[in-house]
Amino acid sequence: MNYQPFINICTFIFTVMTRDMTCSPHYLKKTAIEEMTHVEVLAERILFLKGDVEMKVADKTKQLKDVRGMLECAAKMEQDSAKEYNEWANECAANADSASKKIFEDLVSTEERHFDQYDTEMGNLDKFGEKYLALQSIERSKTVSAPTKA
Q1: Max mean pLDDT range (50-59, 63-72, 99-108, 134-143)
Q2: How crowded is residue 134: how many other Cβ atoms within 10 Å of its Cβ?
Q3: CA pseudo-torsion sign 137, 122, 110, 26
Q4: Would you state the pLDDT for residue 63?
Q5: How far apart are CA 38 and CA 33, in angstroms?
Q6: What is the pLDDT of residues 25-37, one digit of tens each?
Q7: What is the rounded distance in angstroms from the CA atom of residue 121 to the CA atom of residue 57?
Q8: Dihedral sign for Cα atoms in the order 133, 75, 35, 66
Q9: CB of 79 closer than 8 Å to CB of 10
Q10: Are 112 and 78 in contact (CB under 8 A)?
Q11: Residue 24: phi, psi to the nearest 5?
Q12: Which of 26, 49, 64, 118 is the most buried (most CB within 10 A)?
């Protein structure tokens, strides 16, 4: 089987992810770490299939300072990624590559969960307004400054 098309696909997705990840809101650290894990999984698969991985920034970072803009951008990226991963999972199935198909199916599930997180945050922002951000900040400072139990 010729894996070059799959390697090209993974390389493209890897490039898009490393470019678009910079748009994610910084306060969702767990999501950012998961996105970096996606890059690692794809890079490992590319290498396994004897492809080359080139780590480089593909685009300039988007400078978003508006919380709503960050959430909308992140939600759109998650939606677009889930759609693309689903298409690639189907392509892998059509080429009898079940290992790569599973990778893409797992990525779809994670991207859908991320989208739901961003969508929930936008809903909370709509419902509670700017006060919601202040409440999050206060709650976080309580958690961070709370003494640990011995």
Answers
A1: 99-108
A2: 11
A3: negative
A4: 74
A5: 9
A6: 344 567 777 878 8
A7: 28
A8: negative
A9: no
A10: yes
A11: -65, 145
A12: 118
Q: Tokens 């990624």 sit at which residue? A: 81
**DSSP tag of 22:** G
pLDDT in tens, 116-148: 988 888 888 888 877 776 666 555 555 545 566
Tokens of 10: 């993974």
**Residue 71 CA from chain centroid, whole number:** 13
Cβ–Cβ < 8 Å for 88, 106: no
Residue appearing with tokens 């678009």: 20
Is there a contact between 70 and 25 (Cβ–Cβ < 8 Å)? Answer: yes
Helical spans, DSSP H, in the chain: 4-20, 29-48, 67-94, 98-128, 131-145
Q: What is the pLDDT of residues 60-94, one digit of tens each?
A: 767 777 778 878 888 888 899 899 999 999 999 99
What residue ranges define each of the domains in the chain, with the CATH number in brackets?
Answer: 4-145 (1.20.1260.10)
Query: Radius of gyration over alpha carbons of the chain, in Å?
Result: 18
d(CA 12, CA 140): 37
